[in-house]
Write a structure and sequence with these properties.
By secondary structure, the chain is of the alpha/beta class. It folds into two domains: 166 residues, 2-enoyl-CoA Hydratase, Chain A, domain 1, CATH 3.90.226; 45 residues. The chain is built from eleven helices and eight strands. It has a four-stranded parallel β-sheet. Helix 1 packs parallel to helix 3. The mean pLDDT is 87.
Length: 226
């Protein structure tokens, strides 16, 4: 799944036509039930920290910073890494049967894919501590009441598509820049936002074109300040 998500991120980052992304689970049982214990359970400490936690964390951070809005259509189990995946979304629509949990402590580990930090910005501390420190499973209506979910809908995919339809009618570069600003304000890579917004500002200037052209022509540039 991580490899597939990375491939999808590649495609979105390369595309100028993609204006919104919807993430949903396959089948009725779960959006995502979290990491397969059989996969990581046999890893020693070094591989667990470097390969499993490190690579997953980098991917989830990358997904959170995609240039287009990401909409989560959530149903069934949204557990562990699945809840961390839901947390990277800009919009979250859940089915009434969706259940949310961070059960890592029950098997002797901690949330490792930026979930605890990102979720701390998305829900009240009291609720997050209840989930992390007790493993309690919470329903969709409770997470809607604290603002983690945008809405609860019988058909979350249909509602996600409606949100996407509204998004794609907007100016795509304005949406991209606004998402960068919102992310930076929320602690989502201020450095990247500053670099990209600054680059976007200067790349449209005639001075930038003059600088490139003068370099290619091996002459001193004539900057005009516009």
């Amino acid at each position: 799944m991580l490899a597939s998500l990375a491939e999808a991120a590649d495609a979105v980052e390369r595309s100028r036509e993609t204006k919104a992304v919807i993430i949903s689970g396959r089948g009725p049982k779960a959006f995502c039930a979290g990491a397969d214990i059989a996969d990581w359970g046999a890893l020693d400490t070094v591989d667990f920290v470097r390969l499993w936690i490190g690579s997953g964390r980098l991917l989830f951070d990358r997904l959170a910073r995609l240039p287009v809005p990401v909409i989560g259509a959530l149903h069934g189990w949204v557990f562990g890494g699945g809840l961390e995946l839901a947390a990277i979304c800009d919009f979250r629509v859940a089915a009434p049967n969706a259940m949310f949990a961070l059960p890592e402590a029950s098997i002797g580990v901690t949330p490792g894919w930026s979930g605890a930090q990102r979720l701390a910005r998305l829900m009240p501390q009291a609720l997050l501590r209840e989930m992390v420190l007790t493993g309690e499973r919470l329903g969709a209506e409770r997470l809607l009441s604290v603002g983690f979910l945008n809405e609860v809908a019988d058909d979350p995919m249909a509602r996600a598509l409606k949100i996407a339809e509204r998004v794609v009618r907007l100016a795509p570069r304005a949406v991209e820049a606004t998402k960068l600003v919102l992310g930076a304000a929320d602690g989502e890579s201020k450095e990247q936002a500053l670099d990209r917004l600054a680059a976007g500002l200067v790349s449209a200037t005639r001075d930038r074109a003059e600088g490139v052209q003068s370099f290619l022509e091996k002459r001193s540039p004539n900057f005009l300040g516009d």
